[in-house]
Specification:
This protein is an alpha/beta fold. It is 46% helix and 13% strand. The protein has a single domain, classed as Alpha-Beta Barrel (TIM Barrel). Helix 2 runs parallel beside helix 3 and helix 4 runs parallel beside helix 6. It is an enzyme of class 4 (lyase).
Amino acid sequence: MLQGSLVAIVTPMHADGGLDINSLRKLIDFHVDAGTDGIVIVGTTGESPTVDVEEHCLLIKTTIEQVAGRVPVIAGTGANSTREAIELTQKAKTLGADACLLVAPYYNKPTQEGLYQHYRAVAEAVDIPQILYNVPGRTGCDILNDTAIRLAAIPNIIGIKDATGSIERGTDLLLRAPKDFLIYSGDDASGLALLLLGAHGVISVTANVAPKLMHEMFVTAMTGKVQEARVINAKLFALHQKLFIEANPIPVKWVLQEMGLIGAGIRLPLVTLSSQHHDTLRKAMAAAGL
């Protein structure tokens, strides 16, 4: 159920930084129609650090309503406060999310034991499937594989989004984790490689702008059509790279605006894409046929 190309969807905003709920609804339909296998709402790409709790819940609620059971909805509910993570996760369950994605606590740099106790506390407090999210380049905190394997023994911790970009670490997880523990690539540039090694899906930034191709890449990889998957990945590779030419989600929101899918809104301290990168991203769009 929670396999395939899952989009780490952006949060559309008006020019003043307010939420653009109508554009979010249209964006969700765009993804479902294009074959996206699941929607991850209010993750890093959804600007979770700068939405308040009321907005956070509104985004989850709107997504669940608009999806209407057509694909799974995974709610980002991580926080650097365990109490806040429990509160957000409980709210997501009450609203009807299928699962939650919990980023590693950022800034306060817990030890590996602290990480274990944090995730264990959330899992024991809220009975909903939970996915760990390890992105040390953003959080300053790394969920080591030994800790992830230890957490995999907790029944409702069902998987991990590995955004380290390390094939070695991903392979180690795939070899050591329980067979029913879901491992997702959170790094688009190395996503196909991890899929071919046995990962269960991607939680993707690129899927925001190329959902059909990302879905097709997953399907071809999973059905043994490796050459076809490589061809698709080659078309997407410039996007995989250049969508991070500035801090995510600055570039991906700019591309979506170019495609006419959202407006120009983004919330401070993030600002719109520097003009010097426009041509670079347009070339990446052209290579992918956007």
